[in-house]
Amino acid sequence: MFLKFKKLHKDAKWKIGTEKSEGIDLASVINKTMFPGEIHKIPLGISVEPPEGYYTELHLRSSLRVEGLLSMVSIIDNDYRGELMLIIVCTVKKYYITKGDFVGQLLIKNSESAKFKIMETDTLSETPRGSGGFGSTNK
What we know:
Layout: E1 4-7, E2 14-15, E3 24-27, E4 32-34, E5 39-43, E6 46-49, E7 54-60, H1 62-65, E8 69-70, E9 74-76, E10 85-90, E11 95-97, E12 102-110
Antiparallel strand pairs: 1-6, 2-3, 3-12, 4-11, 5-10, 7-9, 7-12, 8-10
């Protein structure tokens, strides 16, 4: 089984840290200065084609989280062929990304949702949790 990578930028690069690494590290293809409160799209210079029945997720590398950067998980559908972009929120201090810095991690996931059909209904089954959310199970 292969995860196909298409290089869209001459400076695009990726690596797998160890043989047991879950993610594929992806590097920025631009230099970017970020200030607190700003949100940036960081181009990674590649597009991907996962095997049928799989999708990918793009995450911020944990080493950048301790620097005060945040990113929500980006779900990349199996049929998307555009350039991968990492969305980064700068929260604490000025931060500088240098072209070639490994900023993102790409995970490949099995797509169970592809096996389900949506059925609209007026009722759902009752559960002990019900509609409790946002910390309701920690009480």
